[in-house]
Amino acid sequence: MTQEIWAPFNFFIGAWKGSGQGRPSHLHVERKYEFVLNGKFLFVQNKSIYEPQEKNPKGEIHEDWGLISYDRTRETFVFRQFHIEGFVNQYLLENIAEDGQTIGFVTEAIENIAPGWKAKESYRILGPDEFVEIFELAAPDKNFEIYSESQFQRVHVE
Length: 158
Description:
The protein is mostly beta strands. It has a single domain (13-154), classed as Beta Barrel (Lipocalin), CATH 2.40.128. 0% of the residues lie in helices and 62% in strands. It has no helices and 10 strands. The protein has a 10-stranded antiparallel beta barrel with strand order 1-2-3-4-5-6-7-8-9-10. β7 (102-111) and β8 (118-127) form a beta hairpin. The termini are far apart.
C-alpha cells in the first residue's frame, strides 16, 4: 500500500491538547496520532478528563485507543476504537469532504452495548494547527445526538 492512501490523515500526526463540552460536563482532552507497524496503521491514543459535576463530584477520566486501517477489499478506512469502559467501536469511513477539511466515520458495529446503538466521529480542520471533533451517539431507532464536541490545538515540540 502506498503512503498516498494516508494523505487525508497526515494532518493529524503528532500530539494535541484541547477542551470541549460533553454530555457529562466540560472536558480537557489530550490526543496523539502516529503511524505504527511499518505505516500500515494509524494509532490514536486519547484521554478526556471531565470536570466534576453534580452526578459525579469526582469527575471522570475517559481513555480510548484506536487503530485506523485501510481495508483493500472494501476500499475504505476502518477505525477500531477500544474504550476503557469496555466498548469497542468499529467505524467505517463515511466521508472525506472534497476539500479534505472534514472527515467522518460511522459505526458498523459496537461491542458490549445493547443492540441498535450507533456512533459517529467527525473531524473538521480549522487551520494548520487546529481541528474540532464531534462525537455523536444514537440510541436504537433514534437520531444522532452530540455527546461531546472538542477543539484541539497542536502541541509544538521545541
